[in-house]
Design goal:
4-stranded parallel beta sheet, 27% helix, single chain
Length: 210
């Protein structure tokens, strides 16, 4: 066990002992009786490949953006280059039914919007995680005939009100609306924009990534 700093809610401690996966539940946290997609993937790996006993953290954050105080490694879907003791693994969404259903929906609706019939406007929606995203939305106000970019998610009521007053907050749009546009910008969030980047590559629209 050992003394470890308190874990953020999206950082979970696991152990592999004798080819069996164990999860640590902090005192007071309800014990889940159902495996999530990443736990199922790890158990599948254990069934196929012998692994040594391991002690590690699994991150359910968008990515690891700063050095961490833990001596054990963290498994995460993204990280900044300067952070060590982080091992990259597939994003939890990409190895579960959630992503499979998205692929099926895109595959069924994509042919309804051939390139020559798509609108020649760039369309973006997302949350306020980096200033570059705000700059994109501000550009949208200057050239609405070329770009439709708005924030559509903001848990902080004060910031949301500020974005609304600046006309930078808008409604959510449907799959069909995204697919009907020729240009789909994707801007990194906390680390990377996942799964936004993946599904845009399946959209038959042009993905624009700075």
């Amino acid at each position: 066990s050992g003394n470890i700093p308190p874990l953020p809610g999206a950082l979970v401690r696991y152990r592999i002992v004798d080819q069996t996966l164990y999860r640590y539940f902090p005192p007071g946290e309800e014990i889940s009786l159902q495996d999530n997609s990443t736990e199922l993937a790890l158990k599948t790996l254990l069934a196929l490949t012998p692994l040594p006993d391991l002690d590690f953290f699994l991150s359910y954050l968008d990515g690891i953006t700063a050095p961490h105080p833990y001596s054990t490694p963290i498994l995460a879907s993204a990280k900044v280059a300067s952070v060590d003791r982080v091992i990259l693994i597939p994003d939890w969404r990409s190895i579960g039914d959630w992503w499979v259903s998205n692929i099926k929906e895109l595959s069924s609706k994509g042919p309804l919007f051939p390139w020559e019939q798509k609108k020649g406007i760039a369309l973006w929606r997302g949350s306020f995680t980096k200033q570059i995203r705000k700059k994109l939305c501000q550009l949208s106000l200057l050239a609405p005939e070329l770009l439709n970019a708005k924030f559509n998610s903001e848990p902080d009521p004060l910031r949301r009100r500020e974005l609304e007053e600046e006309h930078l907050f808008g409604e959510r749009v449907s799959w069909e609306e995204f697919l009907s546009h020729k240009y789909l910008p994707v801007l990194d969030g906390a680390v990377t924009a996942s799964p936004a980047f993946q599904w845009r590559l399946l959209s038959a629209s042009l993905t624009l990534h700075p």
